[in-house]
């Protein structure tokens, strides 16, 4: 089962299949990714996508400090996935962080299992210049229990004044919620949930029920 922000490495045939699903102008970028051995990232499945197909994406570095990243959507039969892994661990991603972030990131990651995606992770993986002065730090918190959720939210909140933190909570089963929205929502409120198939509103209680009660 694939999860949001998973990293996927393709076989040679997988890159050939991916090339059939993109615009001609994107082929050069795909060739670079294949040549360098870089992974694509799992994204939400396309509407009507048949079984056995994996929806992936590649985000290119921004052309300038204020320019958005260009994203390339591709689809590949699952048999052409060579391997996959979860989002990059925070310690792995920290090597690409500006010096001004590193001490606070180390303190944040010291007691909480966090993973990185977005610009920081992509710069760590590729060495290309994704980070700009306006970049956020996208972090993924995947708690197994309510205590892990509470501890993770508390840690993120403590460091949010010193770091431009953003990101998601990934609940068991694959439902993802922006951690800031979760933190700020009151009991009884519904929150925006993103899954591999759709975007919906759901109750906090329903999401908490997916966690171990400890």
TrEMBL record:
Give every Phosphoribosyl-dephospho-CoA transferase MdcG N-terminal domain span: 4-84
Q: Does the keyword Aminoacyl-tRNA synthetase apply?
A: no
Span of domain Phosphoribosyl-dephospho-CoA transferase MdcG C-terminal: 90-204
| Swiss-Prot/TrEMBL keywords | Nucleotidyltransferase, Transferase
TM ranges are none
By its UniProt entry, which InterPro entries does this protein fall under?
Holo-ACP_synthase, MdcG_C, MdcG_N
What is the superkingdom listed in this entry's lineage? Bacteria
Instruction: List the Gene Ontology MF annotations in alphabetical order.
Output: nucleotidyltransferase activity
Q: What name does this protein carry?
A: Malonate decarboxylase holo-[acyl-carrier-protein] synthase
Source organism: Massilia litorea
This protein's gene is called mdcG
């Amino acid at each position: 089962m694939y999860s949001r922000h998973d990293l996927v490495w393709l076989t040679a045939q997988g890159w050939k299949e991916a090339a059939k699903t993109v615009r001609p102008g994107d082929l050069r970028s795909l060739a670079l990714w294949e040549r360098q051995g870089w992974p694509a990232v799992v994204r939400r499945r396309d509407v009507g996508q048949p079984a056995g197909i994996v929806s992936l994406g590649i985000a290119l570095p921004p052309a300038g400090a204020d320019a958005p990243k260009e994203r390339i959507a591709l689809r590949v039969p699952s048999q052409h996935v060579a391997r996959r892994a979860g989002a990059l661990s925070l310690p792995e991603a920290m090597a690409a962080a500006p010096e001004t972030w590193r001490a606070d990131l180390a303190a944040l990651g010291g007691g909480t299992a966090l993973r990185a995606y977005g610009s920081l992770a992509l710069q760590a993986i590729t060495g290309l210049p994704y980070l700009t002065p306006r970049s956020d730090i996208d972090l993924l918190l995947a708690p197994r229990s309510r205590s892990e959720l509470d501890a993770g939210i508390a840690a993120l909140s403590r460091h949010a004044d010193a770091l431009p933190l953003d990101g998601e909570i990934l609940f068991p089963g694959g439902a993802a919620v922006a951690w800031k929205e979760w933190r700020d929502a009151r009991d009884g409120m519904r929150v925006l949930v993103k899954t591999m198939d759709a975007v919906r509103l759901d109750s906090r209680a329903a999401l908490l029920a997916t966690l171990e009660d400890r």
